[in-house]
Design a protein that fits this description.
heterodimer, A: 448 residues, alpha/beta, 7-stranded mixed sheet, 5-stranded mixed sheet, 20 helices, 14 strands, globular, B: 305 residues, mainly alpha, two-stranded antiparallel sheet, 2 strands, 66% helix
Chain lengths: 448, 305
């Protein structure tokens, strides 16, 4: 083991023990930061480890894929471990830093992947894809953008394409006798109408912060197209101070001030799915959320989805805005990387898993059955006759018809800039900073 | 309470010595403390002079991290929130713990049963408590909304002041049993003869409490306050699960600031600097409290000082 790894590992012991150290002085106060860094690369020979996310429907499908692989390959097993979404983000980073990464690292690509690449913690898969064109060519080309750093591919795109969608409760719209919004102006007009009936216009899991961010992603795009955020991403100086950016932030605060979001939104978390519950229980009329919530609303919402009470649409246009209303944002795919610290045997198992098990026909059917579009070409023929046909066709159309399919900001940016962004978004939604202050704060971390 | 604390300095004669042959008994604790307290602390101090994203290589960076942390308006804010929570929870916990402790010190059987009941919050983990309270206080699906009680259906965790109040309340709810236990033990140590003397002098129950019980609890108050004050610096899990520092940054205490800087923003250097500040604050507070306590807080004062 090289000395750097040792010192890193020592440090992790250290941070955990700092809590304990202060705790000793406090003698039975509270515990420090929760421990982490257990688990790690496959212990037994002939097996590789794989960490992925919990929550229906994805968890079951991921687990089944692993099971199928293990059944077909009795000598080379994959051992899966599951984590909750927000906890996973920290956990996997810590593990990678400590040299304890799983063989297969599930991720969102983009800025997070870049930080692993910069630290040489993940395997370069460019050559492997060149040698296995069949694996590459069957996937959506757009899914490779967030897997590519400096012209090289460091991750295998997997799972599904997940645009952010504006969901609405049809029953709530019937109650006030209104139609779904066609423009930002319509949205602002609907807000007082719903509030007068005691229905919150929008549900929002604001404590998770990235939920608020989805609103800004669309407002920025609809007002001025993808250029403003691209300038931020490219490290242009003072890019957040662009008038279009200030306008979008101001419109955002207008909606918050008009009580557009449900009372208490800033203490609701997306991990608990409470925001979805607000929509399907009729406490809120609309919700801007990832396409992955369709599956959980179908599971948890009684007859809400099966009974046809759920409506959905792409985010409407901004009156006079320059953005193309077909644009969307979200996750162009999910990503599997291979730890560079894994043994050659483990890496081989992982590659075999990528080539033979990931997005197999059986897995694709399961994703479609759960109301999602796998990132494999030609699955549109499978959609017909599915119980969620209308939704799936909408999803396929939105994803393939988008002029621009932008990656979520927090995934595209470096983790440092993303954390600052999420912090400031929380404050913006709390009305504790103005659009100008937001821009000033964010300009400081451009290029980090 | 403050009178008792202030009065403590009068008896400030420290009794050194009594060491010698039993020093080795401290050895296991000392080794443990050095391995898990001192060594990591030195490591964090070293890291605060580096630039490291937690994943790649560590680069020396001089005072960059310190400069970054010290000019960041987030630091004074985090310190303010930390001290606010500390002071408020001390103000709530101390009187309540003393009263419950004195009450439980009696040997009546029903009080024994109550003592067991009071003890329950201490058996639960902070994370479990936070999850439970979060569900109860949910403005749309929580207790207030479920029982249609207007007063309870506030935006408890969504408004700055309410969120701080909720944190203080839950912390107190969780730790009052622990401190009551300390006071219960201390009250039972007070010699019966002192109460008998007070009775002969014609002191009533309340008079006895103020003039006998409370002064005799002086050192216990210092000990318990030290635990509360220094312990409150490490509140992390409860706040992390309950509010994640929100709304905005209303409950972003120093420990949470450290975690978010280090593990979410990948800035291990500045996070280490914050950690060092946290340790310094804890040291300063512990020393101040010892001074207030009149030197040897471990001195016995049985049979009168």
């Amino acid at each position: 083991m090289d000395p750097i790894t040792t010192s890193r590992r020592t440090f992790l012991g250290i941070t955990l023990a700092t809590g304990a150290g202060v705790g000793l002085a406090a003698c039975g106060g509270t515990s420090g930061p929760q421990s982490s860094g257990t688990g790690g690369a496959g212990a037994a020979t002939g097996s590789a480890s794989y960490w992925y996310l919990t929550g229906p429907p994805g968890e079951g499908i991921r687990t089944n894929t692993v099971k199928r692989f293990n059944a077909a390959n009795p000598k080379t097993q994959i051992k899966g471990t599951t984590f909750q979404n927000d906890a996973y983000k920290t956990k996997v980073k810590t593990a990678i830093g400590a040299g304890q990464a799983p063989t297969i690292i599930w991720g969102w690509g983009g800025g997070g992947l870049k930080s692993y690449v910069d630290a040489s913690q993940v395997e370069d898969l460019t050559d492997w894809f060149a040698k296995n064109p069949a694996v590459k060519d069957r996937l959506f080309p757009s899914s490779f953008g967030a897997a590519t750093v400096g012209g090289k591919i460091y991750a295998m795109p997997c799972e599904t394409v997940q645009p952010i969608v504006l969901y609405y409760n049809k029953t709530s719209f019937e109650k006030i006798g209104a139609q779904p919004p066609q423009s930002w102006g319509d949205i602002m007009d609907l807000v007082p109408k719903f509030n007068a009936k005691g229905i919150a216009p929008f549900s929002l899991g604001g404590q998770s912060r990235w939920t608020n961010m989805m609103w800004l992603e669309f407002l920025f795009d609809r007002i001025s197209g993808p250029g403003v955020f691209q300038a931020v991403f490219d490290g242009e100086k003072n890019a957040w101070s662009n008038p279009a950016s200030i306008q979008a932030l101001t419109e955002m605060q207008k909606l918050i001030k008009a009580n557009g979001f449900i009372k208490g939104f800033s203490s609701i978390t997306a991990d608990s799915n409470a925001d979805q519950a607000l929509l399907y229980t009729g406490k809120a009329a609309m919700m801007l959320h990832g396409s992955w919530t369709y599956g959980s609303m179908a599971t948890d919402g009684g007859d809400f989805v099966s009974g046809g009470h759920l409506g959905y649409m792409n985010f409407p246009a901004f009156d006079g805005g320059k953005g193309d209303p077909s644009d969307t944002v979200g996750n162009p795919g999910q990503y599997l990387s291979i730890s560079s610290k894994a043994t050659a045997a483990e890496k081989d198992i992982a590659k075999k898993f990528f080539a033979t098990a990931v997005l197999s026909d059986a897995e694709n059917k399961e994703w479609i059955g759960a109301g999602a579009i796998p990132i494999v070409k030609g699955t549109d023929s499978l959609l017909t006759g599915s119980k969620d046909e209308a939704w799936l066709k909408f999803l396929y159309g939105t994803s393939s018809g988008a002029k621009v399919f932008a990656q979520s900001w927090d995934q595209a940016m470096s983790p440092t800039a993303a954390e600052e962004l999420l912090n400031n978004i929380a404050k913006l939604f709390q009305m504790s900073i103005s659009p100008q202050q937001f821009a000033d704060n964010m300009n400081k971390v451009i290029g980090t | 309470v403050t009178a008792a604390v202030r009065g403590a300095s009068r008896t400030g004669t420290s009794r050194a010595g009594r060491t010698g042959s039993v020093t080795w008994m401290a050895l296991p604790a000392l080794v443990f403390f050095i391995a898990f307290g001192v060594v990591p602390l030195l490591g964090v101090m070293g890291l605060s002079f580096t630039r490291w994203d937690g994943i790649g290589a560590i680069h020396p960076a001089g005072f960059d991290s310190w400069q970054k942390v010290l000019v960041d308006p987030g630091l004074p804010h985090a310190l303010y929130v930390t001290f606010l929570v500390m002071i408020l929870s001390w103000l709530v916990q101390t009187p309540a713990s003393i009263l419950i402790g004195v009450f439980l010190a009696s040997h009546a059987r029903y009080r024994g049963v109550l003592a067991v009941l009071y003890f329950i919050p201490l058996l639960l983990s902070s994370a479990a408590i936070a999850v439970a309270y979060k569900a109860l206080l949910d403005p749309n699906f929580g207790l207030g909304a479920g029982l249609q009680i207007g007063f309870l259906s506030q935006d408890w965790l969504g408004e700055d002041k309410l969120a701080v109040g909720v944190v203080v309340f839950i912390v107190s709810w969780q730790f009052i049993p622990f401190h009551s236990l300390i006071y219960q033990g201390a009250v039972r140590q007070i010699p019966r003869s002192m109460y008998e003397a007070a009775e002969i002098d014609g002191a009533g129950r309340i008079r006895q409490f103020w003039n006998v019980t409370l002064p005799q609890l002086k050192y216990t108050i210092v000990t318990s306050s030290t635990l509360m004050v220094v312990g409150s610096l490490t509140f992390f899990d409860l706040i992390f699960v309950l509010t994640a520092g929100g709304p905005g940054d209303a409950t972003r205490v120093l420990a949470l600031d450290m975690y978010k800087t280090g593990f979410q923003a990948n800035l291990m250097g500045p996070a280490s600097a914050i950690a060092v500040i946290l340790v310094l604050v804890a040291f300063a507070l512990a020393i101040i409290l010892r001074r207030i306590g009149g030197g040897g807080a471990s001195d016995s004062q049985l049979e009168g000082a």
